[in-house]
Amino acid sequence: MQIYFVVILNQHLVLKVARVYGEVEKVGVPFDVQLKRIEVWWTNPTFYRPVQKDQNMGKHLSVFCNNTRSQPADHRMLYTIGVGGRVAGIAYVGQVCRASHSCSVVRSRKKSTVFVELHEFGHSLGFHHDPKMDCPRPYGFMGWKYSTFQPCYRTELLKRISLLTKSEEEEEEEEEEEEEEEEEEEEEEEEEEEEEEEEEEEEKEDEKEGRKR
């Protein structure tokens, strides 16, 4: 898993995220978070300027996602300050496998920044808030406790990976079926062509016989 962080303030925050998601015993699967790229905007790019002062963080997310989808990373994260009002961050839920939607916006606020990183990336992976996932207390980073990966997250993550794997297997099966159908169609077409050629040959032979008579 490679994450693309934009306008990041402290690289050690990324290491904290990697450490939390890297605990295989808790997460359930090997999960490698790597810092792919850091980009600092001293001046906001042209595509971002129309929303740079807008307090609706959803607009920031949409513009950022649409204009960074070509970046070679599994997830992109935008850091900002001064927007969003009381909203600390935002992300599309369960969209980490879609380049056009695998991104998040984090409002940098000193100590809480790493919590918001974990929280929004969790949303991208498909996690909802702790109460909605029936997580027992004490809550983890999808609730209100910093840097804690709860067992209920593991259950949700493995379930989503299973569904994704199943979907991939179904796609492979469908592709195999389509290939078999195409092969059958090709064989049928070849047989039809052979029959047509045989009929043409028979007609020619009949014509020759008719001329002889």
Summarize the structure.
The protein is an alpha/beta fold and 213 residues long.
Explain this structure to me?
The chain has 213 residues and is of the alpha/beta class. It has helices at 11-21, 24-27, 57-68, 113-125, 151-212, and strands at 2-6, 34-39, 75-80, 89-91, 103-107. A five-stranded mixed sheet has the order 2-1-3-5-4, with helices on both faces. Helix 1 (11-21) crosses helix 4 (113-125). The longest helix is centred in the last third of the chain and has 62 residues, at 151-212. Residues 164-213 are annotated as: Disordered. One of its GO terms (molecular function) is metallopeptidase activity. InterPro entries: ARM-type_fold (IPR016024), MetalloPept_cat_dom_sf (IPR024079). Residues 168-206 have a biased composition (Acidic residues).
What does the secondary structure layout of this molecule look like, with pairings?
Blueprint: E1 2-6, H1 11-21, H2 24-27, E2 34-39, H3 57-68, E3 75-80, E4 89-91, E5 103-107, H4 113-125, H5 151-212
Helix pairs in contact: 1-4
Average pLDDT confidence is: 79
The fraction of residues assigned to DSSP E strands is 5-15%
Number of helices: 5
**Unreliable runs, pLDDT <50, ≥5 residues?**
3-9
What order do the strands of the largest sheet run in, or round the barrel if closed? 2-1-3-5-4
The main β sheet shows up as: 5 strands, mixed
Share of residues in helices: 40-55%
Radius of gyration: 28 Å
Inertia-based shape: elongated
- What is the H-and-E element order? EHHEHEEEHH
Number of strands: 5
Counting helices, strands and paired strands, the structural category is alpha/beta
First-to-last CA distance: 82 Å
Organism: Elysia marginata
Protein name: Peptidase M12B domain-containing protein
GO molecular function: metallopeptidase activity
